[in-house]
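REVIEWER CHECKLIST
Item 1: Sequence provided? yes
Item 2: Single chain? yes
Item 3: Sequence as submitted:
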Amino acid sequence: MSSWRQRLKAWLPTPLLEPARRLADWQKALIIARQTRTWGARDMDRYLRHQHSRNRRFTQPQLQAKLIKSYHSLEKGLSLAAPRPGFGKPAALALKGLIEDYLERFGMDAFLGAPIAVLEEYAAFQARHSEPLPVITAFLEQLHTATRPADADGGGTETTSAAAIRAAAALPLEPFLRHRHSIRNFSGAPVAAASLARACALAQLAPSACNRQGGRAHCFNTPELVGKVIGLQPGNRGFGHNAGAVIVVTGDTRAYAEAGERHQALIDASLFAMTLVYALHAEGLGTCMLAWNASPGVDDAMRAAAGLADWEEIAMLIAVGELPETLNVPISTRYRTGAIARMNGQIFQES
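Item 4: Structure as written out by the authors:
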């Protein structure tokens, strides 16, 4: 049986076919616009219900998220090649306040091991550089009397080497993944275009919606262009100037359609970026993924600097660099499996 579209096409006079087709396209565009607004409002409402920036009394997961963001800012600073004495004092005091809030509401648990360890390393660093923080020191002394769980998480930094990271590239998957860190201590040497090209070729193996391959990589490895591009991203202070390359990862919005795919370009670009940093890791290079949360004006400036097309949506930047022989990297403790995964609706049992 023919469809109603086929029957309508057969019934309409030829001169009216093109106007009818245009009318149908216009109606379809209106439907998609209405769906996008409706579905976008639904996504926004859900986000506003659960995001934590506006809440005064956080739930435990929200407070944990704030603690992770707070202590990781100090971890990042401690992992720089030459941390500045006295850096991060307001952040350290804010972390102290969050730990106190968590202790008062939820008590000492394994999760608090990481933020406390970071604060301890931070205080020790400042003391070594004649920048003591009596308030933080007194607080840590009080915590020493508290009983910490035997399985408390670790935090702070640890020392590794370029040789260990390169050796991990030839290991089975688990050690390979465990040796990939966000690097904020580059040697300053230029990154070869051939290494970037090989990594981008492997990144194309990332899964994408219907294999539409919407991820794009704009690579720059000359000092002038690296500085120009990375200078528009505010989260690389203290290490971005030593990057030997920078990659702007984008999603090609032309690859997607309908209201239901409004986020797909960024999803596929993120999968592409994740695969890309592991491919760069296999090249023996250090990487640091840099978030893109820019105002429209800065977004326009990045588009101009990187030569992006209008149909590209910026997902993130990746700083890339050669590794010094030894370096500190953030421990960046991860949640336990039971906190993020379920089996048949039940919490995974820790092995």
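Item 5: Key structural point noted by reviewer: The chain is about 50% helix and 15% strand.
Item 6: Recommendation: ____
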